[in-house]
Design a protein that fits this description.
By secondary structure, the protein is mainly beta. The chain has one helix at about 80-90, and strands at about 10-15, 20-30, 35-40, 45, 95, 110, 115-125, 130-135, 135-140. The chain is built from 1 helix and 9 strands, in the order ββββαβββββ. A hairpin with a 4-residue loop joins strand 1 (about 10-15) and strand 2 (about 20-30). Bound molecules: zinc ion (ZN).
């Protein structure tokens, strides 16, 4: 029953020229998808764009899950902030003294004699770990 879009039909389109959601005529289709439309207001043929939801708040985020904090903001966070966040995620445990002979796990908090407290970010290799410290990320050897 629902109107399938097809060439010549009207569709609500976001017209970037008019900067409004306006009805447009479908000019071409790409399979089942609307490809190009002509805005009925300005008569411009453009790629079809889904109508913009007027009140879509950009701050609407998917409710953050548990420990898997997405690191997409990495570039704007200073290392110290990333480090602090990682430490909080780990639950601020007592750091385990770093030793080349100890096997460390992901997320474990260690204390390095030179670099201080770090959080294991990655296991790069059975004997290599990537650790984030307050000032930088470093690769350390472990499990030897
Ligand atoms: Zn238009």
């Amino acid at each position: 029953m629902s109107d399938k879009p097809s060439v010549g039909k009207e569709i609500l389109n976001y017209c970037s020229k008019c900067d409004l959601n306006l009805s447009a005529l479908i000019v071409s289709m790409l399979g089942a998808e609307v490809s190009k439309v002509m805005c009925k207001t300005c008569k411009t043929t453009r790629r079809y764009k889904d109508p913009k939801g007027g009140a879509t708040s950009p701050s609407k985020r998917k409710a953050a899950g548990k420990s898997s904090t997405p690191r997409t903001k990495r570039t704007v966070l200073s290392f110290q902030e990333v480090w602090r966040e990682a430490l909080e995620t780990a639950g601020n445990p007592e750091p385990k003294p770093y030793s080349i002979r100890t096997a460390f796990d992901l997320g474990q908090v260690i204390e390095h004699p030179t670099f201080g407290v770090g959080i294991i970010q990655k296991r790069l290799h059975p004997d290599k770990i990537q650790v984030i410290f307050q000032d930088d990320e470093r690769t350390l050897i472990h499990n030897r």
